[in-house]
Amino acid sequence: MLKKIAVMTSGGDAPGMNATVRAVVRYAVSKGVEVYGIMRGYIGLIENDFVQLKFSDVGGIMERGGTILRTARCEEFKVDRGRKEAYKVLKDRQIDGLVVIGGDGSLTGATLIANESDVKVVGIPASIDNDIHGTDMCIGVDTCLNTVVENIQKLKDTASSHERAFIVETMGRNCGYIALVSGITTGAEAIVIPEVKVDFQALADKLLAGKKRGKINSIVVVAEGAASAYTVARHLENRTGYETRVSILGHIQRGGSPSAFDRLLACRLGSGAAEALLSGQNNVMMGLQSDGIVPVDLNKALQTKKEIDLELYKLANILS
Amino acid sequence: MLKKIAVMTSGGDAPGMNATVRAVVRYAVSKGVEVYGIMRGYIGLIENDFVQLKFSDVGGIMERGGTILRTARCEEFKVDRGRKEAYKVLKDRQIDGLVVIGGDGSLTGATLIANESDVKVVGIPASIDNDIHGTDMCIGVDTCLNTVVENIQKLKDTASSHERAFIVETMGRNCGYIALVSGITTGAEAIVIPEVKVDFQALADKLLAGKKRGKINSIVVVAEGAASAYTVARHLENRTGYETRVSILGHIQRGGSPSAFDRLLACRLGSGAAEALLSGQNNVMMGLQSDGIVPVDLNKALQTKKEIDLELYKLANILS
Amino acid sequence: MLKKIAVMTSGGDAPGMNATVRAVVRYAVSKGVEVYGIMRGYIGLIENDFVQLKFSDVGGIMERGGTILRTARCEEFKVDRGRKEAYKVLKDRQIDGLVVIGGDGSLTGATLIANESDVKVVGIPASIDNDIHGTDMCIGVDTCLNTVVENIQKLKDTASSHERAFIVETMGRNCGYIALVSGITTGAEAIVIPEVKVDFQALADKLLAGKKRGKINSIVVVAEGAASAYTVARHLENRTGYETRVSILGHIQRGGSPSAFDRLLACRLGSGAAEALLSGQNNVMMGLQSDGIVPVDLNKALQTKKEIDLELYKLANILS
Amino acid sequence: MLKKIAVMTSGGDAPGMNATVRAVVRYAVSKGVEVYGIMRGYIGLIENDFVQLKFSDVGGIMERGGTILRTARCEEFKVDRGRKEAYKVLKDRQIDGLVVIGGDGSLTGATLIANESDVKVVGIPASIDNDIHGTDMCIGVDTCLNTVVENIQKLKDTASSHERAFIVETMGRNCGYIALVSGITTGAEAIVIPEVKVDFQALADKLLAGKKRGKINSIVVVAEGAASAYTVARHLENRTGYETRVSILGHIQRGGSPSAFDRLLACRLGSGAAEALLSGQNNVMMGLQSDGIVPVDLNKALQTKKEIDLELYKLANILS
Known about the structure:
In chain A, strands 3-2-1-4-5-10-11 form a seven-stranded mixed β-sheet, sandwiched between helices. In chain A, strands 7-8-6-9 form a four-stranded parallel β-sheet, sandwiched between helices. Chain A has helices spanning 17-30, 41-46, 80-92, 104-116, 141-162, 177-185, 200-212, 229-240, 260-278, 298-303, 310-319; strands at 4-9, 34-38, 50-52, 97-102, 120-125, 165-170, 190-192, 218-223, 244-248, 284-289, 292-297. In chain A, helix 6 (177-185) runs parallel beside helix 11. With 320 residues, chain A is α/β, with parallel strands linked by helices.
């Protein structure tokens, strides 16, 4: 039975990270385990920047965006020397188990610790990109989608008033999930994602057909990993003669109080991760599958590409 | 192959009904089918109150709460005579298929039509109570949860300022889902739901323990089907001596622009229902199961009680 | 020149109180003055429950609803004995000046201190009711109005879907401001406020005329001080035969992160109060008048009834 | 007495334009006047694109962002020939009065019509920049501020998590009002506006001082008319060594359902404009001054620069 565990958030922040930390801490503490928060992800681990987290230390954080443990990207941990320092810190502090909350880069670090040290490690997928295999949803995605949808609705107001096309760029470096779902759910005329080769002529034709049908606004949602919104705008202006405007939603997509969905997911994955650690699991990631919380082999999760549902892409075309 | 179908919304309204109507209409129209909207549910069916819905007639409705087809509860359809009039209307209009969007009462009507007439019927579960078997989530639940969570957060502000306990009553006549999930995701001290017998003394002890630990606000979430918030308040005041306040959230839980989740679910269930009808399905309900949209036997869905996940109830107690 | 001042929030909480505390503290600290927060209003004053507030102690509170100083209603301060204890505390602590943030009851206490002790006192009007003479707006009113308007919009969704009339009860014991403004800005059919005698027959006629004109929803906004929403509902059902529903918005009207308007008002009134104290003012309240922040004689402010603009009431009737 | 009036929205759209149109139409119709909406501002005027607006035609639009009359910028109206065509249209249609809703460019057009034709003209200031003399607030400003504040709060979440500085660019070509007020109300470390020469070294020093004091996020708000956010970011990175990120809020600032404040202002200015026209006023703009709605000489309003309150700029520095 583990006695001391640690928890960190790492990589890009996502709404719901605080709710996850709260669940890890409170579940573990309720089982008699001591819990430490590691500040700023792997950097704080190497630099031995730990703080004990008791039950009441995580009160009132569930509703807050960002992460009280802060987060960072860390180059040092990618080299042996940095990791050795980290393992020494964990050993000196007699940490038996570690929960890593973050995206694929952060979880790659987690599996290295599981493989190279005696510390047991459980990962929790938190990434607004929803690009991690082994879980239906990552923490932060739902809140991000609501932010994107709400803002595209605002753009539609002004698009309709001016009879313009708006090209909206969302986050998503390798994965078009945010663009795809926000495009469907705002009735966007077209969606440009890394998973589907873009055909600018077809896209232009669609906009022209919409206008002919009487539409007074057009929205094109572009994942940042597929193309620059400015490039898409230029192509469309050239082919249609429309007046277009570009909106890069940027970092507002990462912030905000988490939605009910993300809070619930955070409570379930966070407590599930603590429970998994305490029951001896190692080198796994907790995932949401079919409404159940399950441990997924961490190596497998990292080596498999999460496929986007292309039926949704077709559906977007039918419905808009 | 069907040529003319109709769609209605019925029973209590839920956010996302309009997005569902839009998806049914646009999917079917794109396959060459004529679609009619029936006004005010079964009443409009009996009274022959139909309106043709073309592709552009459902533009701009996805983001709107409520239902443009309006809705009502209907006693006449529960008796043979009313239903016979309804079947005559459907026959006279040569309607081959019908999509019914609503809760269990509305879907019970749907299965009667499937059993008693030649019209093929597909149901779509829309109910903020999330009380329908055969689907992980009903349309409207996610938006409702966000509304409840947002408002409980507001109550926590004032509860903390005055060091009071708030007893919040949510919707949920037979099913504690809204109360349970909103309670977990707002860190409520206690949750009172129809599925679990309430122990007022244990509840009072929990509030007292929280206060001892330094908590300056207490939230108790009560499903309307379990108890009146006023009753709970009286019990707790008597046992703890706390100053309590009651908040009945009421009908604001039904309104509002649907969340991204509800819009996506509506797009998928709506187009899935149209597709199911066109491919010859009958007497089924489209459900979300494990991230897939599947047809579920409608009789079975109606005869099976949807069980709440009691693990969530335990989790709520551990985390708060 | 004052050296030590204290600040308290008292009475019903209002969004923006924290932003006000922050402004008082930071302005005074920047001028070299020591600032103490008094917990729970006049109770904390009598019980000597003070906490020093430095510049960074009020970081991150501007956006939070409620008040970190907490608040309460206090009977003890209404009797001489209680006030004597309070003055002793202030004297022992060598407090030269006091800022009281609250509604008319709290400001009445403030003027007593100014009259009965050597401590200089400046009040700041914070009350969602907007019932204080001498200021165009009180802190919290704008946020409250946005909450009410947003929720009435949700009720309109469901009202339209069911073709019902909703009777919405807002806060406002002696003053119909919230009901009046939220009624105008949501297009309510009728508004019932303490300042205008209600004519149920005229109101019923208006609803009937609206229905005749094709309106499918009706909203009646009632200030709690004018009538119970249930009473209004009964009168209207009897006279019109409509199906009505009641929604009591309750305490959600007090919570939530303050709007931009309330934050700006809080920054201006809070810094203005600190500046007024430091420049020797006493027994005044800071008010917003014509876009300027001015000191108002506190006794006069309390003795004059704030009149509601009845032109707005007429306008509501013309526009709906 | 006028018999037929027209109303248009022109220039950049602002939230509350629809509420204003509704108020103009309903007030005038209630006085027996016929009202026409002109589509797309001055273009629709020249092209004779009018639509009659009856009382019920403007139902349900108050809560919608954008403008149902659409809007555009128009070069043709700047030359005599274009204006002559416009005057002919107005004469042929026997329009006696015109309400123009828009910013300074649009109001400049309005005064030309008043000077060069027999049509009486009243303007209404609607511009998120709040850059029009003669009114305390323009329609759309309050909603825009809430959008900006809400989004800066989201950026603060991620700024704190990553310990970064965010440079946020708001709208405001000639006027720093949005940047100034959103900066104060989000506790921004620094505000860069056209009205005040920027001192990058002082700004860098302030950020460094904040960090020294323990601040883990820094927000700098920049009005687009003062500097590019990228330029500011580069200057600050060079001088402080901080990691910065840029967020261009862009067109989302124009959209969204109007706030309670903007709706009320729209109701008052819209009905006030109609009333002014009917009572024979001409070549004026309705303004909000000290809580009253007053006619302002339109030429004077256009020729006077609206000064920003530099006390607010100083206050921002004291409080952050």
